[in-house]
Write a structure and sequence with these properties.
- The complex is a heterodimer of chains A (448) and B (194).
- With 448 residues, chain A is α/β, with parallel strands linked by helices.
- Chain A has twelve helices and 20 strands.
- Chain A has a twelve-stranded mixed β-sheet. A four-stranded mixed β-sheet of chain A has the order 19-18-17-20, with no helix packed on it. A two-stranded antiparallel sheet of chain A has the order 1-2.
- The longest helix of chain A is centred in the N-terminal third of the chain and has 16 residues.
- Chain B has a two-stranded parallel sheet with strand order 1-2.
- The longest helix of chain B is centred in the C-terminal third of the chain and has 38 residues.
- Chain B contains ten helices and two strands, in the order βααααααααβαα.
- Classes of the chains: A alpha/beta (448), B mainly alpha (194).
- The interface between A and B is large, with 75 and 42 residues.
Chain lengths: 448, 194
C-alpha cells in the first residue's frame, strides 16, 4: 500500500497554490487537520472539467414528459455492454420501464459488479457512505467526477444570480462538519484559480481553543460555506462575523426555521441541496416553487411505487435515478430510498415533499392518521438541527431532540398537540451528532 | 438409442422466426409482461400433460440478476417446443420440464437469450441441445455425427464463455482491491460532502 504524495494530491499545484495550502494549515487559529486529501486533477482533467462546466451551463434538465430522454437508450445499451451486473442479465429490454430497479442493497452486495469494465482502475477513488438503511458502501469515483460537483453547485447558485468569482489567493469554499470524528483537510480548486478549499470540523475537539473557530472562519472569508443542518446550527452559535455569498446545505432536510435563521444572520441565500454520494447534486430547493428543482441534464428522475412502476405526476413515491455524471458508477433505475412527488411548476420540474426513507403514518389522539410530512411541517418553523419522532405501540410519542435545541421543547409540545391531539409525549434530549432517522412507529398499520 | 428427429433446419428456421411475444420481457418484480410459468403450463397442455404448481415454481422469479435471462430463454424454448413435430412426438412431460428448467438455465448462464434467435450458431446450438436432451438426432445424422456437431458448436462457445468469465472475475477482484487502497480512501475534493 503506497502512501500518496502531495504530487498525487495536487498534480498541477503552482507556487501560489502552495502558498495558499501553507497559509490554510499554518494560520495561528487553524484547527488540527486530521487528514490529507487533494483535488488529484491533472492538466487534462482540468481541461475536461472546463468543457463539462460549459456543457452544464448551457444544458437544460430533461423535461420529464412521459418518455425517457433521448440519450437513455444509448446509455442503457452501453451499461448492458460494459457493466458486469447488467451484462449477466442478457440484452437490454426493449422498453425502458422493463428495466429492473436496483437498490442500495444491490450495490452493497458487490459494488465491483457495477463498475464498467472499460474504466481504468489506476485513478479510482472512493467515497464512503454509511447511509441510514444499514448498507454501508464504498462509492467508486474519479477525481474528475468529484470536480464535476462544482458545475452543479454553480448551476444551483445561478438561480440566485450568483456567479462564483473567487480565485487565486482567496478561499472559495469551507465545508463544515460537526462530529466527534470528521475527515478534515485543506486543498485548492484548480478550476477556480487555485482558490482555497477547507474541510473543517466545528466540534471543539479539533481546535486548540474553541474561540479559534470564529477567528479562523473570519480569516478565511470564504465565498461559500457548505455544511449540513447540524454544522450550520453550530455555526449560528459562534460569534463569527462572516459574509459568505451563499450557504449550501446538503445531507439532511433543512427546516424553514433554520434556513431563515441562517439567511437573516449571514444576509445571503441558503441553498438546500438534495445530493447523494451515488449521483451527486440532484436538485436544489426553490421556495417560490415549493420543491426541489432538478439540476442535472443527464440524470433521468422517476418516481416509482412499491412494485417499481412509474407513478403519475403529483403522486408520491420513491425517487429512482438513471444516468448521472459518475462514469465509474452508471446507474439504471436506482431506487434512492428517498420519497417525493414529481411536479411541473412554472415550466420547471420539481420534487415536492422530498423526504428520506419510506413514509410513516402517525395515529392521532382521535384515531385519525397524519403522515411524517405533516409532522415536518408542524415543526418546520423551529430552527431544529435534527430530531426524531417515534410513536410507541400504545400511541404515546417519544421525541428525540438535540440538547442544543432544548429551548424549543415547549413549542414542539404545542405543535404536536395541535397536530395530533393530547397524546402522551416525552421529549428526550440527546448529545449525539448522528444524522438520526427521523420517523418511526411501532403502531400497527403505520406503514400501510 | 436416440430416435430420429426432424430436419435441423426446420428448428433453426422456427427459432429465426420467433414471434415478438416469445421475446417479451419476463415478468419479474413488477417489470416485464411475459408470465413464463403460464406459457410453460400451456406448452405442457399442448403436449397432453399437466404441470403441477410445484413444477411451475421454477419459472417464477423475483430477482432479475439471476432469473431474467434464463426465463427469457425458457420462453424462446417454449416456442421451439410448440412446433408440430415435437407436439406429435409423444415427449415425456418430465423431460420437457427438465429441458425448459435446467438446460435453459445452463445455456443462459452467459449468453443473452435473444442471441439464440438472432445468431445462426446459437440457433443451431439451441436446436441441437434440445434434440439431444430429448433423445433425438436431427434427420439425416447418426448419433455420433450429431454428438460431434453439438460438442463442436457448444464446446467453442463454452471455451469463449469460460475465458470471459475468468476475465470478469479477475476484473471484479481488481476493482475491489483498487477501491480499498489507501489512495482511493483519501478521495478527492468535492465542493460539498453528503
Amino acid at each position: 500500500m503506497t502512501e500518496p504524495t502531495d504530487e498525487d494530491r495536487y498534480p498541477t499545484l503552482s507556487e501560489g497554490g502552495r502558498r495558499m495550502l501553507d497559509w490554510l494549515r499554518e494560520h495561528p487559529s487553524a484547527p488540527v487537520f486530521r487528514n490529507r486529501s487533494g483535488n488529484r486533477l491533472r492538466g487534462t482533467d482540468i481541461a475536461a472539467l472546463m468543457l463539462f462546466d460549459d456543457e452544464v451551463t448551457h444544458a437544460k434538465p430533461h423535461r420529464h414528459d412521459e418518455l425517457e430522454p433521448a440519450w437513455c437508450s444509448d446509455f442503457v445499451a452501453e451499461v448492458f455492454d460494459h457493466v458486469p451486473y447488467y451484462r449477466a442479465m442478457g440484452l437490454p429490454p426493449r422498453r425502458f420501464t422493463d428495466l429492473p430497479v436496483v437498490s442500495r442493497a444491490d450495490l452493497s452486495a458487490d459494488i465491483a459488479r457495477f463498475v464498467p469494465d472499460n474504466i481504468p482502475l489506476e485513478r479510482l477513488i472512493n467515497f464512503r457512505t454509511t447511509g441510514t438503511t444499514g448498507h454501508p458502501l464504498l462509492i467508486p469515483s474519479h477525481p474528475q467526477v468529484a470536480g464535476r460537483y462544482l458545475s452543479f453547485h454553480k448551476r444551483a447558485l445561478s438561480r440566485h444570480g450568483i456567479v462564483p468569482t473567487h480565485g487565486s489567493g482567496q478561499v472559495g469554499v469551507v465545508l463544515l462538519g460537526h462530529q466527534r470524528r470528521c475527515f478534515t483537510y485543506v486543498s485548492v480548486t484548480p478550476t477556480m484559480g487555485e482558490s482555497g478549499l477547507v474541510k473543517l470540523n466545528l466540534h471543539p475537539v479539533d481546535w486548540r481553543d474553541p474561540v479559534d473557530r470564529s477567528l479562523y472562519l473570519e480569516a478565511l472569508d470564504a465565498e461559500f460555506i457548505a455544511g449540513d443542518p447540524i454544522s450550520f446550527a453550530e455555526l449560528l452559535r459562534l460569534p463569527a462575523r462572516l459574509r459568505p455569498r451563499a450557504l449550501m446545505s446538503v445531507s439532511m432536510a433543512l427546516s424553514t426555521g433554520l434556513r431563515k435563521a441562517l439567511e437573516e444572520r449571514y444576509g445571503c441565500p441558503v441553498l438546500d441541496l438534495y445530493s447523494m454520494n451515488e449521483v451527486g447534486p440532484v436538485a436544489v430547493y426553490d421556495a417560490k416553487l415549493g420543491g426541489h428543482v432538478l439540476l442535472q441534464h443527464r440524470l433521468f428522475v422517476e418516481v416509482l411505487d412499491d412494485a417499481g412502476h412509474r407513478v403519475a405526476d403529483g403522486t408520491r413515491g420513491e425517487i429512482a435515478v438513471t444516468g448521472g455524471f459518475n462514469f465509474c458508477l452508471p446507474l439504471l433505475r436506482y431506487r434512492t430510498g428517498d420519497f417525493a412527488a414529481l411536479e411541473r411548476r412554472e415550466g420547471e420540474v420539481v420534487l415536492r415533499g422530498l423526504a428520506g426513507r419510506a413514509p410513516v403514518r402517525f395515529r392521532t389522539a382521535p384515531g385519525a392518521w397524519v403522515n411524517n410530512i405533516d409532522v415536518t411541517h408542524a415543526v418546520d418553523h423551529l430552527p431544529l438541527s435534527h430530531y426524531a419522532l417515534n410513536q410507541r405501540a400504545d400511541g404515546s410519542l417519544h421525541f428525540l431532540l438535540s440538547r442544543r435545541d432544548a429551548s424549543h421543547a415547549e413549542p414542539i409540545r404545542s405543535a404536536l398537540a395541535s397536530l395530533m391531539g393530547e397524546l402522551a409525549l416525552t421529549i428526550e434530549l440527546v448529545d449525539g451528532d448522528d444524522k438520526t432517522v427521523q420517523y418511526r412507529s411501532d403502531v400497527d398499520e403505520a406503514h400501510a | 438409442m436416440p430416435r430420429q428427429g426432424p430436419l435441423l433446419e426446420r428448428l433453426t428456421h422456427r427459432l429465426a422466426e420467433t414471434p415478438p411475444d416469445f421475446l417479451d420481457e419476463p415478468a419479474i418484480g413488477g417489470q416485464g409482461a411475459a408470465v413464463v410459468a403460464a406459457v410453460v403450463h400451456d406448452l405442457l397442455r399442448l403436449h397432453g400433460h399437466a404441470a403441477s404448481r410445484e413444477a411451475l415454481k421454477r419459472f417464477e422469479a423475483r430477482d432479475a440478476t439471476t432469473d431474467r435471462n434464463r426465463l427469457a430463454l425458457a420462453l424462446i424454448a417454449c416456442w421451439l417446443l410448440a412446433d408440430d413435430w415435437f407436439v406429435s412426438a409423444s415427449i415425456d412431460g418430465g423431460a420437457l420440464l427438465q429441458f425448459l428448467g435446467e438446460e435453459s438455465a445452463i445455456l443462459a448462464a452467459m449468453t443473452p437469450a435473444p442471441r439464440f434467435v438472432h445468431d445462426p450458431d446459437r440457433r443451431e446450438e439451441l436446436a441441437r441441445t434440445c434434440l439431444a436432451r430429448l433423445d433425438f438426432v436431427p434427420e439425416g445424422e447418426t448419433g455420433a455425427q450429431a454428438n460431434d456437431r453439438l460438442s463442436s458448436i457448444s464446446g467453442a462457445e463454452r471455451q469463449r464463455l469460460l475465458a470471459a468469465s475468468r476475465e470478469m472475475e479477475a476484473r471484479a477482484h481488481a476493482v475491489r482491491e483498487a477501491l480499498v487502497k489507501k489512495a482511493a480512501e483519501e478521495s478527492a475534493d468535492k465542493w460539498s460532502r453528503e
